[in-house]
Design brief:
84 residues; alpha+beta; three-stranded antiparallel β-sheet; 3 helices
Length: 84
């Protein structure tokens, strides 16, 4: 039985760049199978490249959110800031 939701906490932490690329490929393959992923990742470039939506946290608060492609364009300035 395949999961419908998979939560990943820092899957690239401490890995060599070649292994990070392999992890990204595996995550993409899971997405293509229709599995929803909740990804916590400090490697923003990786996270934005393999996700549809992103939230930027600072000291436990959401400071930016939006489509990953918008957040990744030229930094968080293109995303909607949170007002609450």
């Amino acid at each position: 039985m395949d999961p419908t939701l998979l939560m990943l906490d820092e899957p690239s932490l401490g890995l060599a760049p070649k292994l990070v690329a392999q992890v990204a490929e595996m995550i993409q393959a899971l997405r293509q199978r229709g599995i929803t992923l909740l990804l916590v990742e400090q490697n923003a470039n990786l996270a934005l490249r393999i996700s549809d939506r992103a939230y930027v946290l600072q000291t436990g608060r959401t400071i930016r959110e939006g489509a990953s492609r918008d957040l990744g364009r030229a930094g968080p300035a293109h995303a909607s800031p949170r007002t609450n």
